[in-house]
């Protein structure tokens, strides 16, 4: 932000924008001693840190690179304004490490990081079978190597027909919806089999839930707006595993999507507790099976009661 140094409003805009995307922010700043230099040029930056914290509700920590670079009077003044100055980089990092430990869970530790290796994608049918084994609801369906082999006996239309072997099925034209007689459909080039499912009716909202190994953090849990526009709208929150049901519920409320889940303008309220339970189940699957690299459900359709994993992908470590 050097090019706008001294410009309070623009510095505030930059700091606020940056801080809004994170749970906390550290700002390296070293005001000079007031008995040696005029520190007035640093005041707009300190005021911008304070304004960013108030605007976002996220803690903003001014950090002096050396402990002595914040004199006592300045530190007290910041504390009185609700800002916590951190004295020296090493102390600041230790403080932040302590702050990330959930309240009431002093023994919390992230999972051990796993080095990145090659990954293999399970097809959707196998992925859903694994989810069903973990107690997660999936649509009733059948699979076959070709369309002619699909037997819809016992299934209730309308159907969703999915070609297997594609990560992004929509772009590949590998999803066909609202079908009555799927065996009249033409084959999908490159398909490695087919999955025929009953379409889920009565959904209130679509969410994305994913858990993945991380070479730095151990594992992360992502919650967000689901469906084909999930990547475009990027309405997500990511947490470091392991997380509790309370933390997942709180994270859902941070989504821009939340009003739609909570009965916006008379809409039915989605069963967000079901979403929480699905997230916990994915976390448990990942913790129990070290060969799993990533699990993603998109979308998880939330009903007024219950939730169904309509699309899913699981990657295993090679």
How would you describe this protein?
By secondary structure, this protein is an alpha+beta fold. It folds into three domains: 2-99, Rossmann fold (3-Layer(aba) Sandwich), CATH 3.40.50; 140-198; 205-317, 2-Layer Sandwich (D-amino Acid Aminotransferase, Chain A, domain 1), CATH 3.30.470.20. 28% of the residues lie in helices and 24% in strands. It is built from nine helices and 14 strands. The strands form three sheets. Strands 4, 9, 10, 11, 12, 13 and 14 form a seven-stranded antiparallel beta sheet that branches. Strands 5-8-6-7 form a four-stranded antiparallel beta sheet, with no helix packed on it. It has a three-stranded parallel beta sheet with strand order 1-2-3, with helices on both faces. The longest helix has 17 residues, at 272-288. The radius of gyration is 25 Å and the shape is elongated. The mean pLDDT is 90.
Provide keyphrases for this structure.
318 residues, alpha+beta, Rossmann fold, D-amino Acid Aminotransferase, Chain A, domain 1, 3 domains, seven-stranded antiparallel sheet, four-stranded antiparallel sheet, 9 helices, 14 strands, elongated
Structural Rg: 25 Å
Largest sheet: 7 strands, antiparallel
The second-level CATH architecture of the largest domain is: 2-Layer Sandwich
Kindly report how far apart the N and C termini lie. Answer: 43 Å
Q: What count of domains describes the coordinates?
A: 3
What proportion of the residues form beta strands (DSSP E)?
15-25%
Counting DSSP E segments of at least 2 residues, the number of strands comes to 14
Q: Structural class, please?
A: alpha+beta
Order of helices and strands: HEHEHEHEHEEEEEEHEHHHEEE
CATH homologous superfamily designation of the largest domain: ATP-grasp fold, B domain
**CATH fold node name of the largest domain:** D-amino Acid Aminotransferase, Chain A, domain 1
Low-confidence stretches: none
Assign the CATH class of the largest domain. Alpha Beta
Mean pLDDT: 90
User: Count of helices?
Assistant: 9
């Amino acid at each position: 932000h050097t090019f706008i140094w001294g410009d309070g409003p623009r510095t505030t805009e930059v700091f606020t924008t940056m801080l809004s995307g994170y749970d906390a922010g550290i700002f390296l700043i070293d005001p000079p001693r007031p008995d040696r230099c005029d520190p007035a040029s640093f005041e707009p930056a300190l005021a911008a840190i304070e304004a960013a914290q108030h605007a976002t509700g996220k803690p903003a920590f001014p950090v002096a690179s050396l402990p002595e670079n914040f004199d006592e009077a300045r530190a007290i003044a910041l504390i009185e304004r609700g800002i916590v100055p951190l004295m020296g980089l090493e102390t600041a990092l230790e403080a932040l490490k302590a702050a990330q430990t959930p309240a009431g869970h002093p023994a919390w530790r992230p999972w051990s990081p796993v080095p990145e290796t090659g990954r293999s994608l399970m097809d959707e049918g196998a992925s859903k079978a694994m989810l069903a084994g973990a107690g997660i609801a999936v649509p009733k369906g059948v699979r076959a190597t070709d369309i002619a082999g699909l037997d819809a006996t016992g299934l209730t239309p309308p159907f969703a027909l999915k070609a297997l072997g594609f990560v992004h099925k929509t772009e590949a034209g590998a999803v066909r919806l609202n079908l009555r007689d799927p065996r009249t459909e033409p084959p999908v080039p490159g398909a490695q089999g087919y999955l025929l499912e009953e379409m889920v009716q009565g959904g209130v909202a679509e969410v994305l839930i994913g858990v993945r190994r991380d070479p730095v953090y151990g594992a992360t849990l992502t919650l967000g707006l689901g469906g084909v526009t999930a990547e475009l709208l990027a309405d997500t929150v990511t947490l470091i595993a392991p997380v509790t049901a309370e933390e997942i519920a709180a994270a859902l409320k941070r989504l821009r999507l939340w009003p739609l889940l909570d009965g916006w303008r008379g809409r039915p309220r989605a069963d967000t507790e079901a979403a929480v339970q699905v997230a916990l189940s994915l976390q448990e699957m990942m913790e129990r099976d070290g060969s799993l690299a990533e699990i993603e459900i998109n979308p998880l359709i939330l009903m007024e009661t219950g939730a169904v994993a309509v699309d899913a992908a699981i990657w295993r470590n090679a």
